[in-house]
Amino acid sequence: MKRPLIVQKFGGTSVGSVERIHNVAEHVIRAKTSGKQVVVVVSAMSGETIDWLS
User: Fold this and answer.
1) CA nearest 20: which of 48, 45, 51, 47?
2) What phi-psi label fits residue 22: left (phi over 0), alpha (psi between -120 and 50 degrees) or beta?
3) How confident is the model at residue 36 (pLDDT cuts 50, 70, 90)?
4) Which of 13, 29, 41, 51 could bond 9 through an S-S bridge, CB–CB 3.0 to 4.6 Å?
5) Residue 42 contacts residue 7 (beta carbons within 8 Å)
């Protein structure tokens, strides 16, 4: 049987601190241990994209 595939995207404030990154990791681990195939996309931390454009 094929396992469901899910895509999780995180960025901005959800990866804005070490504690929040830890929460994201726990979220990803829960999805993986529940038997899903997981693709994780991580974009820039809060405030970083605007710095790149300046």
Assistant:
1) 45
2) alpha
3) very high
4) 41
5) no
Angstrom distance (rounded) from CA 30 to CA 13: 20
Cα dihedral 30/33/36/42 (nearest 10): 50
Q: Which two tokens stand for residue 25?
A: 């990791």
The DSSP secondary-structure symbol of 2 reads P
First vs last Cα of the chain: how many Å apart? 49
Q: Which two tokens stand for residue 27?
A: 């979220």
CA–CA dist 2, 37 (Å, integer): 9
Q: Global pTM?
A: 0.79
Q: Is the Cβ–Cβ distance between 10 and 42 less than 8 Å?
A: yes
